[in-house]
Every structure is written in structure tokens, then in C-alpha cells.
Amino acid sequence: MSALSLRLPDSIHRHIKEIAQKEGVSINQFISSAVSEKVSALLTEDYLKSRAKKARKSEFKKILNRVPDREPLQGDEL
Questions:
Q1: What 8-state DSSP symbol labels residue 25?
Q2: What residue numbers bound the domain in which 52 lies?
């Protein structure tokens, strides 16, 4: 595990401290979790972009054409 020195504005530090206390975790655990979530989101975005580049519109339309034409289920109307 690595150590990292981080400078934060006082207001951000105060918010982090409050949230960590509410969540029942340490500030280190909270920041580690928050950074992990952000890294995961960015990696997922990159993965989806790379997959989208490989997509073919004609194949997508073939799949959509197999979807039955029916009324939406209750609650899905909007």
C-alpha cells in the first residue's frame, strides 16, 4: 500500500470528515472508496467507447428488429 500526501481546501476537508463520520468510516477509507469509484467509472467509460467503435449499425438493427412490437409494461410508459 502507498501513502499519498494530499492538500485539500478546508471546506472540502470538512465535508469529507462529516460524510465519513456519517458513513462510519475513516477519512482514509472514504477517500480511497471515492477514488476507486471514480477510477472504475473512467475505466468503464473507456471500455464502452472502445466497444462502441467496433459496433456495426447493421448488426444493431438486426437485433432491434427481433424485439417484439408491443405496448410498454405498466410503469415503463414514460
A1: S
A2: 18-65
CA distance 57 to 63: 10
Total tally of structural domains belonging to the chain: 1
Rounded Cα gap, residues 12 and 49, in angstroms = 32
Closest CA to 14 of 3, 30, 2, 1: 30
78 located within any domain: no
d(CA 18, CA 74): 41
Q: Global pTM?
A: 0.65
Q: Give tens-digit pLDDT for 6-30.
A: 999 999 999 999 999 999 999 999 9
Q: Which residue pairs, CB below 8 angstroms and at least 24 apart, start in 60-63?
A: none
